[in-house]
Write a structure and sequence with these properties.
It holds the Pfam family Glyoxalase. It contains 5 helices and 19 strands. It is of the alpha+beta class. It has a single domain, classed as 2,3-Dihydroxybiphenyl 1,2-Dioxygenase, domain 1 (Roll). The protein is globular, with a radius of gyration of 18 Å.
Length: 286
Amino acid sequence: MEFHRQPNTFVDLVNIKVSDLSRALTFYQEIIGFQVLERSERSATLTANGRTPLLVIEQPDPVIAKQPRTTGLYHFALLLPSRADLGRFLNHLLQSGYPLQGASDHLVSEAIYFADPDGNGVEVYADRPSSSWDWSNGEVKMSTEPIHAENLLAEGKDEPWTALPPETILGHIHLHVANLFEAETFYIEGLGFNVVARLGNQALFISTGNYHHHIGLNTWNGVGAPTPPEHSVGLKWFSLTYPSEEVRAKTVNRLETIGFQVERKHGEEWVIDPSGNHIRLLVDAS
């Protein structure tokens, strides 16, 4: 988990919109294993350790279903502490009967993919040791290979899955964008991330501190995909945590220099990427 603390910049909280808060809470508590940190009539903040918020789910009024072929959330990804935890989770998911969308060995990690009842994408994964990652010319080798499910299940079979481990963090977020070149300019020149892998002209993976990726960006919903309506199911915002006020201030200056408006409210900085994704810029308080 060393890639999700100072001196790195990383994603630490995601806010998503759902059509039925009660149904979503049942899924996120019973299928994934979150705890409720705070609850109101139309939103809930979820945690793995009882203290740190990782996910906010919110039911807009009015709300419409997730819109196809738009920008926004592809998936958010929960990083488990160990491979054994991932094995326990996979066994739990299979026993629950909840539908999987996929499971892959990415060389740097192993991942399980599914969606919440509204179609918001979720990944649960475990990293391989960073010493085993293969780097060449500043890029890390990633792939999509079949996962060794039997081996993974065997590693996690000793204990049942009862809840997310307290050490679980938000590992990364993957976004649909309208234009990869514009996204690269914003996230690299503006927000200060580095490109660590490319998938042709379709996807880009970026990070700080030589992580395999804190953010994924793709145009799989189509080049020029529109921003979804404000009240549709999907991503509302996500937050980035910078290591210091100085680093955040330099980021804000870069963003404004290349033409992006940064809104300041309640001691926070907010910016919208070229595809309409809202981002909260925070400073590490640890």
